[in-house]
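**User:** My hope is that you can spare some time for a protein that puzzles me. As I understand it, each token names a local backbone shape. I would be glad if you read both lines and explained how they fit together. The protein I mean follows directly.
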Amino acid sequence: MDKLRMGVLGCSRHYELRVALPLRSSLLVEPYAVASRNGAKAQAFADKLDFPKAYGSYEALLADPDVDFVYIPLPNHLHLEYIKKAAEAGKPVLCEKPVCLNAKEAAEAAAYCQSRNVPLMEAFMYRFHPQWVRAKEIVTSGEIGELLTVHAHFSYSNKDGTNIRNRAETGGGAVYDIGCYTVSSARHLFGREPARVICTLVRDASFKTDILVSALLDFGEGRAATFTIGTQMHPSQRVDAIGSGGSLSIEVPFNMYPDVPGKVTVFTGVGQRLIETEIADQYLLEFDAYAESIIQQREAPTPVSDAIANMAVLDALFKSAASGAWETVRKY
């Protein structure tokens, strides 16, 4: 089977650090073209990471008939614009999280792609890792009883005012960057949507981005998820899911290493056990799964409706932080 030729919009540091190496092992994806608004920068990136083609504009890459799909790791505020432009060019899109800046934009992007019969998927790589597949199986099986609560923590320390994550005008801040994971993982484990949220949020005095956020998500009947995220905090991450008959913990839930087993600790009345899942690169699994869905002409493995629903929760979090009260999660 021929590989799908991928075009990358932007000389992304994220792509260079986390995606480029695993894709060398892909049997389905060929990194084919990269684009930047600076042609020399695109060429240097292409030379470094072995892209056959380099373009000095995003539009030129999208016009290339040999590009089979595009990956968008651009700053958050540019996602909607280039999802639409990719759809106009007939290119399937794998877009970095958050897919857009709010649920309205996400729904607009989804409708735009659907009207042109172009697949769109938000790039939540963690769901493809075997440790998350196993954790979801355990919850669904009822081994830990009825799921009652999920607790998540995700933090890092970044005080560089020039970093894209610390620029409010481009969609920076903790909620967009890492809160999307804590919300997504809770929704994934519960298998449903929260009805309302309440949130506290602190902004950096200089950057104006949110840097410390805690929230409670109400999934109904007393079921709830909580999380704390921070971008000027000691780096840490963990997810705990507690049910009526047991619990499970994921040691490195989101930025999982590609060269060691995943670790899921399960506690039940029988005892405690540590499940070590197979060594896997979640980015390779994600890109291959999306490519396979294109080849087989079926729905993306993570449907775009999930991206819209996740953004609706983020919208409610921001609204609650401003109002200081519970806010309803809007349905789209």
The chain has a mean pLDDT of 98. Residues 127-280+311-328 form a domain with the Dihydrodipicolinate Reductase; domain 2 fold (CATH 3.30.360.10).
